Amino acid sequence: MSAIEATNLRFSYDGERSILSGVSLSVEAGEALVLAGRSGCGKSTLCRCLTGVIPASVQGEFSGSVSVGGAEISSLPLGEAARHVALVFQDPDDQLICSTVEDELAFGLENLCVEPEEIRRRVDGAMERFGISDLALRDPAELSGGQKKLVTIAATLLMGACAVVFDEPMTGLDAESRALVLAAIEDLKRGGYAVVAVEHDLSLAPYASRILYLRDGKLHDHP
After folding, report:
1. Is residue 63 in some structural domain?
2. Structure confidence by residue, pLDDT tens digits, 143-202
3. CA–CA distance, 166 with 205 (Å, rounded to integer)
4. Number of structural domains, the chain?
5. Does a cis peptide bond (omega within 30 degrees of 0) precede residue 55?
6. The CATH number of the domain where 187 resides is what?
7. φ/ψ bin of 46: left (φ > 0), alpha (ψ from -120 to 50), beta (otherwise)
8. At what angle do helices 101-111 and 116-129 cross, to 10 degrees?
9. CA distance 220 to 191
10. Residue 170: CB atoms within 10 Å
11. What is the pLDDT of residues 33-75, one digit of tens each?
């Protein structure tokens, strides 16, 4: 069974114009699937479907199914879906809410009522894994773009997800920050995570195992 399995996804925001018209895809553990396509073609909409944001919190007409690690994502509350598939926003400032990096990483675990000693262990492990231990007491708002992305990746994975969806992970980053995020994505692949990423500029996606193109509401193997 694939780590991510989406079947016949259809979505319309207004009930008239179809954004997705029968999208199906599968992603294996350790694979990075990149989604490309023109602006406005529905790439971000597809990301929202893969992570349960649609239909949980976006109005529109939705049908189809998304399974991640055997869990039916499209039928779960968002908080439960996040335990299976993590969404990393294009702008990390949309996700960062705490005044220190270590608090940011602990926030989701505290909401799950994890014991404090276990939270400390997991947070320390995540910071070491992504090379951000020296940022523990820093305010996320003061970090570089690449450092912010690493914090959001670490924080979302602490929820226990086995798959990660990125909305344009490299956009707006300088070369040093892109190198940090690229290394993190390669680490995820080696760790057996399934990765899906939207990329506008494919030259920024050397991590891609496979590229599919969204056009006219469907996925294609070519532009």
Report:
1. yes
2. 998 899 899 989 988 888 899 999 998 888 888 888 888 998 999 999 999 999 999 889
3. 12
4. 1
5. yes
6. 3.40.50.300
7. alpha
8. 130
9. 28
10. 24
11. 999 999 889 999 999 999 999 999 999 999 999 999 999 998 9
